[in-house]
Amino acid sequence: MLDRVSKGVFHALAGSESIKRLASRYGMRQPDSFARRFVAGETVEEAIAAAQRLEAAGMMQTLDYLGESVATTAAADAATRAYLGVIEQIVRSGIGRNISLKLTQLGLTIDRATCVDNLRRILDLAANNEFFVRIDMEDSPFTEVTLDIFETMWQQGYRNTGVVLQSYLPRSLNDAGRMNRLGARVRLVKGAYKEPRGVAYQGKAEVDAAFVDIARLLLSEGNYPAIATHDPAMIEATRAFATERGIGQDRYEFQMLYGVRRDLQTQLTRDGFRMRVYVPFGREWFPYFMRRLGERPANVAFVIRSVLQER
Question: Is 136 a catalytic residue?
């Protein structure tokens, strides 16, 4: 119950323009400011620097240029051009070529055709430079259309891309089978959005049980799945199933978010597992940051301590 209340509160705060303006003024003010625990910075240069540090520690990374639900075609075009620039800067930097994006950032809430055209522009440049592009999953009204667009692009030959499934949606087990049949790469997460009863599981036990079921399906029948979790129980369940079925560590990877459970990231890397860290950056960091706070009470405590130290 507390988790649902926390997620609802922070989901509401994420949509507050006044709080967003205040946070934008102070959240990235200093190198040790509270938001930088979870966000690499506002520029691609800062994100690349963070990615270089992760790679030096033996981890992989993907850059996530933050933004969602743009309101105009001009904004969608600007986001697309920004991503094209990010790809070019990653190439020049020499870091691993892996990015993630959201379809509403490319105009999905405005016009599907515009979104698809913008996505194709990114995938074309990405393919020419041997990038992998992960299409992130947003809240449930966008689940089916996201999978439809992904599948359309896949059938058109864009195989340098993958998608995300959320275990708190009961439909995701069937969706995992659908993606396995395509041969597509899936990133499995629990889900960070506030969803109504009847659309999503509300209890942690149900979400966890679904996560384990989907992870097992992806591991046994999927194509190099990404098990994205900070939960030690989910990590152990994944490791145990892989060992039991003789699934090598080169056939899947663990993923975590920048700044979250760094101890687990380091330990899994030391244990020989493939670990990828999502590195978010950009001026539109506030909604992402609030979702991170809503996911885990310990994150809130960290921010409170940081604010008190700054005063």
Answer: yes
